[in-house]
Amino acid sequence: MEIRPILSALMRNKTGPILVALQVALSLAILTNAMHIVNERRAAMARPSGLSDENATFYIVARTLNSDSAEQQLASMKREADILRAVPGVASVANVSQMPLSRSGSNNSVAVDRKQTRQTTSTSVYISGDSVIKTFGLKLVEGRDFQPQELVDINENTSNEYPKQVIITKPLAEKMWPGARAVGKTMYFGTGEGAQAVEVVGVVERLQAAHVNLEERSEYSTLIPARVYGNPGNLYAIRAEAGQRDRVMKEAEAALRKSSASPMILRLKTVDQDRKELYRADAALSWMLVTVSLLLLIITSSGIVGMASLWVTQRRKQIGVRRALGARKIDILRYFIMENFMITSAGVFGGVTLGLALNHLLVSKLEMARLPSGYLIGGAVVFWALGILAAYGPAWRAASISPATATRSV
Question: Under a CB-based contact definition with an 8 Å cutoff, are residues 65 and 267 in contact?
Answer without folding.
Answer: no
